[in-house]
Amino acid sequence: MADKPEIKGITVKKNVDLSKWYTEVITKSDIMDYSDVSGCMVFKPYSYMMWEILQRFVDDKFKKMGIKNCYFPLLIPEKFLIKEKEHVEGFAPEVAWVTEAGNTRLQERLAIRPTSETIMYPSYAKWISSWRDLPLRLNQWNNVVRWEFKNPVPFLRTREFLWNEGHTAFATKEEADAEKEEVLDVYLETLKNLMAIYGSIGQKSEKEKFAGAVSTHSIECFLPTGKAIQGPDFHHDGQNFAKAYDIKFQDKEGRTEFVWQNTFAITTRMLGVMFMMHGDDKGLIIPPPIAPVQIMIVPIFKENNKKIILKKADELKKKIEKHFRVEIDKREECTPGWKFNEWELKGVPLRLELGPKDIENNQAVLVRRDDGKKSAVKVSDVIKEAEKILKNIHDKLYKQSEKNFKDSIVEVSTMKQLKKTIKDKKMALAPFCNKPGCEDWIKEETEGATTRNIPPDKKVEKGVKCIQCKKEAKVMVYIAKAY
Amino acid sequence: MADKPEIKGITVKKNVDLSKWYTEVITKSDIMDYSDVSGCMVFKPYSYMMWEILQRFVDDKFKKMGIKNCYFPLLIPEKFLIKEKEHVEGFAPEVAWVTEAGNTRLQERLAIRPTSETIMYPSYAKWISSWRDLPLRLNQWNNVVRWEFKNPVPFLRTREFLWNEGHTAFATKEEADAEKEEVLDVYLETLKNLMAIYGSIGQKSEKEKFAGAVSTHSIECFLPTGKAIQGPDFHHDGQNFAKAYDIKFQDKEGRTEFVWQNTFAITTRMLGVMFMMHGDDKGLIIPPPIAPVQIMIVPIFKENNKKIILKKADELKKKIEKHFRVEIDKREECTPGWKFNEWELKGVPLRLELGPKDIENNQAVLVRRDDGKKSAVKVSDVIKEAEKILKNIHDKLYKQSEKNFKDSIVEVSTMKQLKKTIKDKKMALAPFCNKPGCEDWIKEETEGATTRNIPPDKKVEKGVKCIQCKKEAKVMVYIAKAY
To answer: Phi and psi dihedrals of A79, rounded to 5?
Structure first.
């Protein structure tokens, strides 16, 4: 029937085929759509609202730290892009080029920003001349394009994505280093307190660091289905870009020095990580702090009691809407059961049922999305109880995510152990020499596993050898297959 | 001396050479920078903060109206762009084309969105099938590129700019029309209550309406230097795009109908209008509600009293910062006079001076940016007084803008009068047949004046003839040279 909404249940189990499950969940839950440009997706309001909540959360913290927002052009002249050699080698294969405007062929190709170092730093060079101009801590919330030729996956690997890109310049390395802790803390808190995702901070290997950076730190996550996935990252650029773009300042003693720089980002990819992390065979589970709808009121009515029940539902919504993001599903063409399914599919953390019996008893029924448990609650207690349950849902999701990460770790010392660990869909912690060539071999031997990051609290013991080359190990590194 | 900030006074008078004045003011006040891509500018934090305040203001109102944010791809396949004939004719000459990615030549050119109808509406066609899917009211805050070949002017005419683009679809023309009032009210309120700009709502002429629309309404402004300038606009598309993109729905009676659509936008151009509207020979004047810094505290100290005065300044800031966006200028390398100049140049609406005498008398001195008037105020009264003054500054700026608009209007009935009005840098209100050909002639005769919009409250009297062709006039229209 064209007039009745079709049923949209999930037909694939998450632990049977993660990819198919993911595709079904994200398309059926009305959070995105494919576009006709391969690899570019549409963020429908339901997912875009989550991005807005994340943006506000991170942005408020950045502003308190003294980081200011700005906006640089989308298009970068080719001559700027190629100034930092390693950087351009990293990005050139993925750059989308504008070559024509109207009917005119441009004299120089313009790159759509894959990241904005190369358009921002020529300005930094103009703006910075004295120690008084430092630190310069700027950020942008914008869109970037990286024309990857790998198979695109909505949210997780898209040719255009949204992100923040922080670009800062300091007079000393110490100050630049201090920012690292500060920014990574903001990102870790965002993952934990907003998205209920456990993440582990560590340094990237030499091979996996950002093109042009001295060091990259990342927050790594681990999906319940046995794959690692990278979260936000932070790059310390040292003076690499400063030298390439001639960003110098006169210090207090009158000496001319290059600045020290950092860049950092969180992207819409995190939404995909969150969907994969928490979802189940019924669909999405959205952690309450980032859920566009935290409580969905489903009034249960028939023609004869519709008026009174909808009135009560309105009253209840009014009572609690200062505390929660709450909506009422008043549709008459769907049964309550159909609505339950729909909001479970969309991962609304708490459902509030309100039927004739509830109204008689001056109560409402709260149903948790995560475990389906129901509780009848006096109307006067709804705010308090819902707050408690939402907090509990969040804590439980986070603990699951943390347990899942920690349970996945297997400390290994031989290649045989490493291979078994990867085959078992676990994450190895292995001694490693941190040489790019060795890393290539590990990937080959394990059929695709890569180093994730180097946890700061796991020191390599003296005399321990690299799991691959048997030369002296420099670090302990996580190794896993990544999504 | 490299170590001392250079003095940055404005050397051109606003009423002598508006363009030169504007260029000096926007570059010296540290709100923008030019980029190496001609026509693409850098929004430095000071102007970007204003955009963020505007965005928040408009966005909150849109959300209350039920408009939801989303995000569609930046890149539009050529085959989509060309579906609506008038639309593509309007935009094709200004489209920036992506033709290569990495080392690969793309099979189909991709347009960087000059506006998103052509990428959004294929999705709308998929999403809308029943009256239950309507209205669909979506909005994006994003960047667009229009490769104009006219001389670029920062904020006012840039090849990339930031905006909101609302795109809505309704079951009936009546609903679509009702949205017009609602949205134009939001924009008018934004201009009035946030930017202190008087704007006049009216319909655009047939020639000036949006490419592909049935009708366009705009908010027109008038600069104190005798030029009109267009603000936000609203387009009713009728069923034009619905037919081109096949956006149909089944109504309650089971009939298949095309949807009725609107689109609407406010852009970063408005910041430029605001700078031109209110600035004076000392620099910018930023209306308090949109000022990133509403009060700048300038402590007046010497080496011997520095500690106590800065302490008092900190205390005062703490006391008032819940009420205002306030900062302290503690720099020691600049004199108070230099600081006064700088914050006047940047248009901070209120300066608070705090010197040894003030501390003795438990007072502070408030100095208005608009007229330079000073008043000594008891510390306990600072919040109340500052609120009063800031409100008064805003009202005064708005009234000036309104008076300036209204004083500019000259009702004309002959071409001779029209020519004189335009020469006098005024705005004519003239009877007009609303034919594009006639409008071309008017532009020719007046050496560049264009119709602005058709005020709804000025009806054309029966029998009155078009000022140009002498056939029957259909409307009274504003005609002026525009920036």
So the answer is: -65, -25
Integer Cα distance of B456 and B477 in angstroms: 10
Q: Mind telling me how many Å the CA of B92 is from chain A's nearest CA? A: 6
- Distance separating the N- and C-terminal Cα atoms of chain B: 39
Task: Identify the pLDDT of residue A377.
Answer: 97
At B62, the amino acid letter reads F
Do the Cβ atoms of A333 and B95 come within 8 Å?
no
The C-alpha atoms of residue B478 and residue B452 are separated, in whole angstroms, by 5
Mutation choice for B interface testing from A34, A70, A149 by most B CBs within 10 A: A70
- Beta-carbon neighbour count of residue A20 at 10 Å? 14
Structure token digits, residue B321 = 């910062």
Is B143–A142 a contact, with Cβ atoms under 8 angstroms apart?
yes
pLDDT tens figures, B419-462: 999 999 999 999 999 999 999 999 999 999 999 999 999 999 99
Smallest CA-to-CA distance from B483 within B442, B396, B444, B425 is with B425
Residues 6+ apart with CB under 8 A from A36: B77, B80, B122
Query: Measured between CA atoms, how close is A206 to chain B, in angstroms?
Result: 24
Which residues 6+ apart lie within 8 Å of A414 measured at CB? A467
Burial class (CB in 10 A: 0-12, 13-18, 19+), B365: middle
| Top-confidence residue, A149 or A435 | A435
Test the A interface: residue of B43, B60, B70 with most A CBs within 10 Å: B70
